[in-house]
C-alpha cells in the first residue's frame, strides 16, 4: 500500500499546483472586500456566464440586484439560483432585449418609474461572432447589441444614475477591440462582405470609444464609467466560434485553454472589482484588463472618432443629441 502513497502524493501536488497556476494566470479573486448594502445594481445578460456570476458576487455583498435578460425563463431561474445561494432576497428578473429599441425603452421607463436610485449599471450582455443577423431595428447584430443597445440603455438611465451619485457604469469590452476599426461609411455591414470577426472587433472598439466620450460628458456629475476586458472565459458567448467543434482542436488546444481560459466565476471578479472597489472612487474613462488599468488601442483614444461615433449612435437609436447625454 505504501508504494502507492508517494506517486499519489506527487500527483496531488502537481494537480494542486496546476490549479493554483491556472488561478494565478486567470487573475484571481476580487481584491476588494467592500460591500454595497442596499445599493441598486443592474446587470445585463445576467442569466448565464460572467453576467450571472457578477450578479451573484454583488448579491453576496448586499446589493439589490436586477437581472436584465432577453430569455425570461432563464433569467428567473438565475435569480432563484442567486437568491438561494446568497440568501439575498433582493434579486429580481426583468425583461430586456438589447436587439430591440422598443424593449430597451420599455425597460428603462419601468426602472425610472419604480426605482429612485440606480447606483451601478453593468453593461455585460454581448453576442460574439454570430452569423450575419440583424436586430429588430435592422442593425448588424453585434454592433446593435454590444454597442447601440447599451448606448441607448445607458443614456435613458443617466438621470437616475446622476441622482444616485456617486454611481458607476461598467462597460464590458474585449481585448479584441485592438483589431477593430470604425467604418463610418458602413457601420452595419450593408455594403461590404460580412466578416463576423471584424464586426465583433468593431463592436468592442465602439464600447471603449463610448466609454471615453461618456466619461468626458459626465465630468462633475459623480457618475463614473470604465471599460473592461474581463479575460477569456468558458461561457456561452463563444458558441458561434467553432473553437471546440472538432476533436483535433479540443485535444491539441484543450490544455492551453484550461490554463488560460477563465471560469465564469473568475471572469466575473474584474467586473465586481470595478463595481465596488473604494480605491476606484472617481476613476473614470479608463480601460481595464482584468484588475489593471491599461492603455487601449490608439483608435480607442481618438476623441474625434469617439464624438463622431456618439453622434452617429444617437442618430441611429433616435436619441436627441442633447437629451440625457450631457451633465446637468
UniProtKB/TrEMBL annotation:
Keywords: Lipid metabolism, NADP, Oxidoreductase, Signal
Pathway linked to the protein: Cofactor metabolism; retinol metabolism
Family: Belongs to the short-chain dehydrogenases/reductases (SDR) family.
Domain of life of the source: Eukaryota
Leader sequence residues: 1-16
One Pfam family recorded for the sequence: adh_short
Listed InterPro entries: NAD(P)-bd_dom_sf (IPR036291), Sc_DH/Rdtase_CS (IPR020904), SDR_fam (IPR002347)
Lineage: Eukaryota, Metazoa, Chordata, Craniata, Vertebrata
Entry protein name: NADP-retinol dehydrogenase
Coiled coil: none
Entry's EC annotation: 1.1.1.300
Molecular function terms from GO: all-trans-retinol dehydrogenase (NADP+) activity
Reactions mediated catalytically: all-trans-retinol + NADP(+) = all-trans-retinal + NADPH + H(+)
Amino acid at each position: 500500500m505504501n508504494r502507492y502513497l508517494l506517486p499519489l502524493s506527487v500527483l496531488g501536488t502537481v494537480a494542486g499546483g496546476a490549479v493554483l497556476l491556472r488561478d494565478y494566470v486567470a487573475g484571481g479573486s476580487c481584491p476588494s472586500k467592500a460591500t454595497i448594502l442596499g445599493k441598486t445594481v443592474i446587470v445585463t445578460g445576467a442569466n448565464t456566464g460572467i453576467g450571472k456570476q457578477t450578479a451573484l458576487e454583488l448579491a453576496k455583498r448586499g446589493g439589490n440586484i436586477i437581472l436584465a435578460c432577453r430569455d425570461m425563463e432563464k433569467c428567473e431561474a438565475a435569480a432563484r439560483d442567486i437568491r438561494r445561494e446568497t440568501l439575498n432576497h433582493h434579486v429580481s428578473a426583468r425583461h430586456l432585449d438589447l436587439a430591440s429599441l422598443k424593449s430597451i425603452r420599455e425597460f428603462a421607463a419601468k426602472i425610472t418609474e419604480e426605482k429612485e436610485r440606480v447606483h451601478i449599471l453593468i453593461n455585460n450582455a454581448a453576442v460574439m461572432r454570430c452569423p450575419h443577423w440583424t436586430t429588430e431595428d435592422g442593425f448588424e447584430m453585434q454592433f446593435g447589441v454590444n454597442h447601440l443597445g447599451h448606448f441607448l440603455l445607458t443614456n435613458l438611465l443617466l438621470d437616475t444614475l446622476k441622482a444616485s451619485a456617486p454611481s458607476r457604469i461598467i462597460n464590458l469590452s474585449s481585448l479584441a477591440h485592438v483589431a477593430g476599426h470604425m467604418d463610418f461609411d458602413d457601420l452595419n455591414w450593408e455594403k461590404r462582405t460580412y466578416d463576423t470577426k471584424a464586426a465583433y472587433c468593431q463592436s468592442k472598439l465602439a464600447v471603449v470609444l463610448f466609454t471615453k466620450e461618456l466619461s468626458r460628458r459626465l465630468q462633475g456629475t459623480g457618475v463614473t464609467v470604465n471599460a473592461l476586458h474581463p479575460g477569456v472565459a468558458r461561457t456561452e458567448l463563444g458558441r458561434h466560434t467553432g473553437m471546440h467543434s472538432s476533436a483535433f482542436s479540443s485535444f491539441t488546444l484543450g490544455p492551453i485553454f484550461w490554463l488560460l481560459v477563465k471560469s465564469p466565476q473568475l471572469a466575473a471578479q474584474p467586473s465586481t472589482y470595478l463595481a465596488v472597489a473604494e480605491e476606484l472612487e472617481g476613476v473614470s474613462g479608463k480601460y481595464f484588463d482584468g484588475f489593471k488599468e491599461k492603455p487601449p488601442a490608439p483608435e480607442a483614444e481618438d476623441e474625434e472618432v469617439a464624438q463622431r461615433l456618439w453622434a452617429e449612435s444617437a442618430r441611429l437609436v433616435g436619441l436627441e443629441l442633447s437629451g440625457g447625454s450631457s451633465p446637468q
